[in-house]
Amino acid sequence: MLGEALETYTRLRPREVLLVRVEISGVSEEVLVFRGASSSLTSPTPLDPGQPVIPPGARLLNVDRLKAPYVPNDPQVIATGLEQDQLERLLAEENIVL
Q1: Where are the domains of the chain?
Q2: φ and ψ at 73, to 5 degrees?
Q3: Is the pLDDT of residue 24 over 90?
Q4: What is the 3-class SS of 44-79, one letter each residue?
């Protein structure tokens, strides 16, 4: 599952923050993933930590890799606009399969 894979990646790379853009039920959403946790920037984040912020069936639009800590007014960009194939290669570096 996409959300779990991204959370695992950020646990392994704690100096990175992922800004993820997905489409959920036809609506574009932005999710920040950092140190194994996800928070929605565009919708309320579920109170139940067992409920995924990025649900199964969400369609990946793209991902930005940012340096931690994340500063919204001055993000330190590592890479921007990663699409599915680029993300899969990045995750494979940590032996994570989407």
Answers
A1: 2-92
A2: -80, -15
A3: yes
A4: CCCCCCCCCCCCCCCEEEEEEEEECCCCCCCCCEEE
